Amino acid sequence: MSIQRGSDGIAAATSAEAHAIGADAAADLAATLKAIADPLRLRMLSAIATSPTGETTAGELATLTAVLQPTVSHHLKVLRDVGLITSDRRGTWVWYRIAPGYRGAVTTLLDRFAPAAIEVARAAHITQAGPGGPDGQSTLTGLGNVDPALDRLAASLAERFTGTPESECFRVVRESYAALARRGGNAAYLVALTEHFARQRLIDAEKVRALDAGHKPQVLFVCVANAGRSQLAAALMQHYAGDRVVVRSAGSAPASDVHAAVRAILEELGDTAAADTVDDVTRFYPKPLTDDAVRAADVVVTMGCGDACPVLPGKRYEDWIVGDPALASPAGVAAIRDELDGRVRGLLASLLTPPPTFVPTSVPTSVPTTEGTR
């Protein structure tokens, strides 16, 4: 290790040793990562973490695979030995749950790291298909100088939202563009998406200022990436509620695009023309969580985003434990969609008087698989 004297004469390490995690910590971490570096154990971990009750039995986990029960027990023992899960026996059943100290870490693994890893793998597959993507077409690029377009957009919004100072419109437009740009993805559509997102934010801000007690109920669905669960829940709410409820969705760390399996269901729900209306948030693009969206909401539904959503007085909060469709099989995606459908219907019935009459929706006959290229 090389040593260098700083300006204060104190010796400072300049090698990688000064920045790397400690050897003991690395050894402990490696043991835990090794324990989950198995496809079946990862599926078990996700099934336990997303169970509505927060726990499940070995018998239920055995349905994930065709292996014998002793093999299932072995995998559970590996996870238990490193402290990832705990268990207790009740009668003839042993119940497993995520260890309290690991709940946040497992949520981060499943909701942020895993989808990102799958997306990188998918992108690598597309790149291998050809320089312009799988269809051989050239990739669209964004504007070289976006400032004039953003200025025109802000000026246009200032004319429409007369109750909002022009300087505020310019700030919201700039912030919205920067927030959407940070997600990554294709830059060609950033200005158009910025217009939709900025308009939504200005509408929410004006609603908060108006303090109108007679407004329509507003529901905000929040997950980590705003690429799966919250998008699907918002689309289902929009489908059943129509114009009787204002629907929003957002992500605490939005992805660059909606998951392919979820996009198929969103399109199946139909009414893509509604995506052009200002109040509609079934626009199929992830968007970041904003304070105005929370303030304007009457109900905030969180799904896996932990403490990222601010808790404000006078709001109704619900936390739904639902699996992530980004990691699910086609059958799993359909099951998640059905679970959200039931939850959304229950929430809508509590918001409207008299309760709505529901017309069953159909599950897509073919849901793109997340395996292989996802």
From TrEMBL:
Record CDD domains: HTH_ARSR
Pfam family, one: HTH_5
Presence of keyword Metal-binding: no
GO biological process: response to arsenic-containing substance
Record-annotated HTH arsR-type domain positions: 21-121
UniProt keyword annotations, A-Z: Arsenical resistance
GO terms of molecular function: DNA-binding transcription factor activity
NCBIfam families with a match to the protein in the record: HTH_metalloreg, MSMEG_6209_Nter
PANTHER family: ARSENATE REDUCTASE (PTHR43428:SF1)
Protein's recorded name: HTH arsR-type domain-containing protein
